[in-house]
Amino acid sequence: MALRKILTQGDPTLGKVCRPVEKFDRKLHWLLDDLKETLENAGGVGLAAPQIGILRRAVIVMDAQEQMIELVNPEIIHAEGEQEGWEGCLSVPNQYGWVTRPNSVTVRAQDRDGNFFEVSGEELVARCFCHELEHLEGHLFVEHTDGQLYSMEELDAMELEQAEARGPHRKRGKKR
Ligand code: ZN
Q1: Which residues in the chain show pLDDT less than 70?
Q2: Ligand 1 centroid to 170 CA: how many Å?
Q3: Residue 132 bears catalytic tag
Q4: What digits encode the pLDDT tens for the residues 26-41?
Q5: Which of these, 31, 106, 131, 150, could form a disulfide with 154 (CB 3.0-4.6 Å)?
């Protein structure tokens, strides 16, 4: 396993459509292992192969139990509801935007040996499925924002201002 460099916005690789995985061999296992190690090191909740420069349809998503799910050739087969929230990306460091996503998503994918399975997620996990799968099409979350991006420091300042306007008893939201 090896840590890989995470490409950032502006790198042309992030704008390309990824090819399906056809061989479920040792090379794919290395890729998935590297994705997991790189994600763990970066402290994110999801990572897609193009983010480390590999144009193949493979992503890692952290589930609600903080287990890493390996998704090869994933497809969204069901989505419902709606959620709004701040979203960020390891390829767009310290920039967050307000993005609307489905609240519940089911994905069909293959595991590292080629076996098909389905997995469902809600809220943050559903958001992460949508976000990571879009990377495979060459899209970034910023395309869903109104162009307004904020740093974590700016978000904290905004949150504090709102909390003060609401009064001292209001609990602050969970930071991502
Ligand atoms: Zn991302």
Answers
A1: 167-176
A2: 31
A3: yes
A4: 999 999 999 999 999 9
A5: 150
